[in-house]
Specification:
The complex is a heterodimer of chains A (about 475) and B (about 260).
Chain A lengths: L2 H7 L16 E3 L6 H10 L4 H20 L22 E3 L14 H9 L13 E7 L2 E5 L2 H6 L3 E4 H7 L1 H7 L10 H9 L4 E5 L8 E7 L10 E6 L4 E9 L6 E4 L2 E6 L4 E8 L12 E12 L5 E8 L4 E4 L2 E4 L5 E10 L4 E10 L5 E11 L3 E10 L7 E11 L4 E10 L5 E10 L2 H9 L4 H17 L4 H14 L6
Parallel strand pairs in A: 3-7, 6-8, 7-9, 8-11, 9-12, 10-13, 11-13, 12-14, 13-15, 13-16, 14-17, 15-18, 16-18, 17-19, 18-20, 19-21, 20-22, 21-23
Antiparallel strand pairs in A: 1-2, 3-4, 5-6
Chain B lengths: L3 E10 L2 E11 L4 E5 L6 H8 L5 E10 L2 E2 L5 H6 L2 E4 L6 E5 H15 L7 H14 L5 H4 L1 E2 L5 H15 L3 E5 L7 H13 L6 E6 L3 H5 L4 E6 L2 E6 L2 H24 L1
Helix pairs in contact in B: 6-7
Classes of the chains: A alpha/beta (about 475), B alpha/beta (about 260).
């Protein structure tokens, strides 16, 4: 039997190690979606009136879209219809006040859960150099280093808290990059989003530590709808990390998030994601998270820069296109991505770079890995408007196949309306060969290590862009996700 | 006990019998050369000894230091001391040569319960071998075999062999695609590896490499069997008479006996 056949046969052995459930008492809204649900969420969050009105407008728009075609149909993914009335839209662990005050008020079970995930929140153990906002189902349960960051004017807090304490900022920027009318899932998120992180870095401040939000879905039958908003004012810099996991469950759960980034003159935002939602049962494909996410950044100011780095190893379905609107002259957009589809996972992911300002530059490096019955699609758009004199884009899109039952697909869209634009696109598809694995084995490496080495080599350009701790994590994650991929 | 004992080995590739009763004994300290025409089974023998999966052994046995080599996985055979220098070394994109070499060495060290080397400890190990194979520092930072010339790839194979210090090294047509200078460097590397506790099997078409790596024994492999064995002078006879001549002579002898 060839290595390939064995790869397929043994794919079943992969195991999801973050699938535990935390026993906490929750305060949940009844299933179903209507104006009542939205008013309930807004009341629970003690939001200013403008938020409720915005939510309701979004909801009405969503209702219209749902009647028309519901979810967008153009993506290269297949899944059972989602019943939006069968989802819990708000679930918070008890006891719950307006926002987390101190760690003493957080349920010890939850603290334990984060510790198990490798993210201890208490003072003695917390990660040095990383401030963490821990979002558990619909609420933020703790945010570390908040006070320390506040000393230099940086706001890092749960979205709920931001809406109460900084309504002017929220009002100004909310929906400014991803309006509620952007797409079906963006409209849904705007209507029902429950928490997420808010970051504001003032003029001239370089954020001294990594900011991180860790999203954990725990409750059954619930969806997670978070919203993150990051604003980097003139001459500022911030690096933000995002991680996510969920328990092993038979039923699919919906995660529809929105992330908006705004970079003013000379500001830089670096946004890194390691997405590891429960991918579904490796054998049957049952369960897993439906990950429908809208992420977009706006380089509003001159010389600003937004860089997305993502490692997508989890979720049953990933539908996600972190994009950059390059509005300011000389602004820079980057997208570095590794997307893995193993077992029955499907990923349709990529980016959009929209060049508006002069001499705007963008780089896209996308690495897709397909194994088992996984289907991996890269979908990327490069759009150069008439105003974008001297715009440049470089795209490199590589696919790697492990075994012969998986698929890799590439859909690049290029649209240039300015003749001075320079656009380069390189693409490759390769297969992990028997001979590569044998070569490494012949040098003493076990088969699994051999595969992991080949894949890590393939992803190197992207891993290099991740902050140190995350890069190590990502490598480990990738080898765990591929565990059992070879016989 | 011999280092390598091959008895009546039969092997198939895709249902095609290639080795048809090959027997060979190799002792530590010896250099054996296996020569033979295209399709005679030279590379198949190398692949079987390295435990490549799609080579099916149907009969016979192979003992390495008395252990059943045919029961070993490729990585276990490697850790037990079998090294094969590939005829066509494989490229691994994005993995630096130095990282790969250390990973390989550590896999073998781990197998033997020895402490794994960190990046710093590893430096003196490879520095010395680099000199032997006349390679510069950039050789170590480049991705494994990616963009290497034919000669560089072969030097890299011998560099790996020098680092991993196998008990049994099998050189599968290492001379193919080498110019005279590269051949000299590669041969120097191999000769430096000759030692009383190591055996080397040199598989080649041509006598030329054997001017540089002088074997103790030469075997002629035809149609899956060793038809004639001798000392280093047999290689010269082969050069003069060709495989057909030697084979004819061998079968005539067999009939006479």
């Amino acid at each position: 039997m060839s290595t390939d056949t064995k790869i397929i046969d043994s794919l079943v052995e992969g195991e999801y190690k973050w699938g535990f459930v935390t026993e906490v008492e929750s305060d949940s809204a009844p299933k179903g979606l209507n104006e009542e649900t939205i008013r309930l969420i807004s009341t629970k969050k003690n939001e200013p009136e403008f938020m409720l009105q915005w939510r309701l407008k979004a909801f009405r728009h969503w209702l219209k879209l749902e009647k028309q075609e519901a979810e967008p149909k153009w993506a290269n993914i297949k899944y059972d219809a989602i019943d939006y009335q069968d989802i819990i839209y708000y679930s918070a662990p008890k006891p719950k006040k307006a926002g987390p005050k101190s760690l003493d008020e957080v349920d010890p079970e939850i603290l334990l859960a984060y510790e198990k995930l490798g993210l201890p929140l208490n003072e003695q153990k917390r990660l040095a150099g990383v401030a963490v906002d821990a979002v558990f189902d619909s609420v933020s349960v703790a945010t570390t280093f908040q006070a320390k960051l506040a000393e230099i004017g940086i706001i890092f807090c749960p979205f709920t808290e931001a809406a109460q304490r900084y309504p002017e900022l929220v009002k100004k920027y909310l929906g400014s990059v991803v309006p509620y009318s952007d797409n079906f899932f963006a409209a849904l998120n705007a209507a029902v989003f429950t928490d997420g992180s808010f970051v504001y870095v003032p003029k001239g401040v370089r954020c001294p530590m990594e900011l991180m939000t860790y999203f954990r879905i725990n409750a059954a039958d619930s969806g997670q709808f978070e919203r993150t908003l990051i604003i980097a004012d003139e001459d500022s810099y911030v690096s933000y990390l995002e991680g996510c996991t969920a328990p092993t469950r038979d039923k699919n759960q919906l995660h529809a998030a929105v992330v908006e980034l705004v970079a003013h003159d000379n500001a830089e935002i670096k946004y890194s994601t390691v997405q590891n939602w429960y991918p579904g049962d490796p054998v049957t494909g049952k369960g897993g998270i439906y990950n429908f996410v809208t992420k977009r950044g706006k380089c509003e100011g001159v010389n600003s820069k937004i860089s997305w780095t993502q490692v997508e190893t989890g979720a049953a379905i990933t539908w996600k296109y972190p994009s950059v609107i390059l509005q300011g002259d000389n602004s820079v957009g980057e997208f570095y991505s590794v997307a893995l589809s193993n077992h029955w996972q499907q990923a349709d992911t990529g980016t959009k770079m929209i060049h508006i300002g002069k001499n705007t530059r963008s780089t896209i490096i996308a690495k897709g890995i397909s194994a088992g019955h996984g289907q991996n699609t890269y979908r990327g758009g490069v759009k150069v408007l008439k105003s974008a004199v001297g715009a440049r884009n470089y795209t490199q899109c590589d696919s790697l196949l492990v075994g012969d039952k998986c698929g890799a697909h590439t859909f690049p869209y290029i649209e240039a309306k300015n003749s001075t634009a320079r656009i380069e696109h390189e693409a490759s598809t390769s297969k992990v060969g028997d001979d590569q694995i044998f070569y490494l084995q012949q040098r003493g490496l076990p088969k699994e290590d051999a595969l992991s080495m080949i894949i890590n080599g393939f992803c190197k350009q992207v891993f290099r862009k991740l902050p140190m701790e995350f890069a190590v994590e990502a490598q480990k994650l990738l080898s765990v996700s591929l565990e059992g991929s070879v016989g | 006990m011999s280092l390598l004992e091959i008895r009546n080995l039969h092997a198939k590739v895709e249902n095609h019998e290639i080795l048809k009763g090959l027997s060979l004994t190799v002792n530590a300290g010896e250099v054996h050369s296996i020569m033979g025409p295209n399709g005679s089974g030279k590379s198949t023998l190398a692949q079987v000894l390295a435990r490549r999966e799609n080579y099916l052994v149907t009969e016979g046995e192979v003992l390495l230091d008395g252990k059943d080599l045919l029961a070993m996985k490729p990585e276990d055979a490697a850790c037990e001391g079998v090294f094969m220098a590939f005829q066509y070394p494989i490229e691994i994109a994005g993995i630096s040569n130095v990282y790969f070499l250390r990973a390989a060495l550590n896999a073998i060290r781990k197998y033997h319960g020895k402490k794994e080397l960190d990046a710093m400890d590893f430096i003196p190990f490879y520095k010395e071998k680099m000199k032997l194979l006349e390679v510069d520092e950039s050789f170590m930072t480049r991705s494994v075999n990616e963009g290497f010339s034919g000669g560089e790839k072969k030097r890299n194979e011998i560099l790996q062999m020098a680092l991993l210090e196998p008990k049994l090294a099998i050189l599968d047509e290492t001379d193919s695609g080498l110019d005279i200078d590269a051949m000299r460097i590669v041969a120097n590397g191999v000769n430096a590896m000759r030692s009383p506790d190591r055996a080397i099997i040199v598989i080649t078409h041509y006598q030329r490499l054997l001017d540089y790596i002088v074997p103790d024994f030469v075997h002629v492999l035809v149609d899956g069997r060793i038809v004639k064995s001798g000392g280093k002078e047999l290689a010269l006879t082969l050069e003069e008479q060709g495989y057909v001549g030697v084979e004819a002579e061998a079968s005539a002898t067999a009939v006479a006996v």
